[in-house]
Design brief:
The protein has 54 residues and is mostly helical. The chain is built from 1 helix and no strands.
Length: 54
């Protein structure tokens, strides 16, 4: 019974490590998209401001 319990604990640890890696990857993707959108909005606002001052 102890062998099965130890095997289950190790399996659960491995599942937790895999899930953590997936969450980190997802967070990086979301951060990258947020930066891209912010840069695009900034570029549009800069262009509109530049056009307005000319």
């Amino acid at each position: 019974m102890t062998d099965t319990s130890d095997a289950n604990k190790e399996r659960n640890r491995q599942i937790a490590r895999n899930e953590e890696a997936r969450q980190i990857t997802g967070n990086i993707r979301v951060s990258t998209w947020a930066i891209v959108v912010a840069v695009m909005i900034g570029a549009v606002l800069f262009t509109l401001g530049w056009i307005a001052t000319r």
